[in-house]
Amino acid sequence: MGLTLSSYYQWLNPFNSNLSVKEEEKAMLTYYRKRKRGSKIGEILKYYTRRTKRGCARQKEEIVLPSCNKRGREGGHGDSVKEERVVKKERTIAPCSSPRASFLSPHSTSNCYDMDLWTEVAKHMDGRELLMLSFTNRWFNHFISEDYIWKYACLRDMGIPAPCPVSFPWKEIYASSFDGSHSFCFRQQDKHMDWMRIGSFYLDSPFVLLTETLSLPRRLPRPGSDVKRSIELTGTCSLTNARTGIWIADLQLVHCPVCNLETCEGTMQVLDTRHVELFLEEDYLDETWQYEEIGSNRIPVPAAAAIGGIFDLTNLSSPSTAKILNPKSWIGPPTDWQPKAKIGSHAVAVNTNLQPNDGIFVRYQVMKDNNGKVVSIRISQQLI
């Protein structure tokens, strides 16, 4: 039976998956010695040489062959060694970097300090939270120190929609407005009993109406008219030189200033309003500016309530002011003796229902700056 390529391939095929190249060569030579068929040697060697070259090419791509001597000769395989060096040069180790989390990539890292993004976040923070964020690192410290951040916080927490020019940084204005201080903290501390923050309103013009009643007369006092006489006749008066801008309103409860007895239980209600920058003025802090009384009204008949109101004359017909002038909507029933307050965009008023009394004494006080502008207004009611 003669040796053919097909019979040799069928015999050698089981060794292809388990034997190395040298083992395949040894198996082929063993098969050749057994057959001793010289007529087929050329075909066998040709087939074997073709398969061996394909197998070596695959191994050169996957593993590194043994090194040769300096001259590149190892058993006469100089060409193979040269080919191996070419393959090694082509498959050099490529540089790589360690994998990083997505939030640590350069693009994400820049977004972590996106000023526009943190500006939107800051709109939902109060003053305490903004200060805590500024202690995080230098970037946040620089970002929180921006004046527009505190300007937005002031206008938001005060409920003032329109911005206004100011003379002090908004950060200092915010601190002086929300640090829990009021005018009696600086003066007459021994007379002070309790207080309540009402809110903030805005004066568009220097024309202000002061009143001790929510039922306004048909003829309002004209700006520039006699203040004292107007208070005595109508219980109202008008100012022409108030400082425009944001004003803060508080309701104060203080001891009766008539007597100095510590056992006196007499109390006085004060509607205390001030310009938002008053506590930052040096002349106010060193008590250079003082309150002066511009008028008073003594009502010797029993009063149903103690009322005080401050209105911007140019916005007297606005919807928010109209709600304040409708006392039935917010003062409560006559038996409710808790102080009530109502504030609008351009006005503020307080009302306290009174028990049976002999009357009240109403005083109007203002404080002026060096330019003659009114920076603080007080309307106080004291039981007779």
UniProtKB/TrEMBL annotation:
UniProt protein name: F-box domain-containing protein
InterPro entries from the UniProt entry: F-box-like_dom_sf
Gene Ontology cellular component terms for the protein in this record: nucleus
One of the GO BP terms on file: reproductive system development
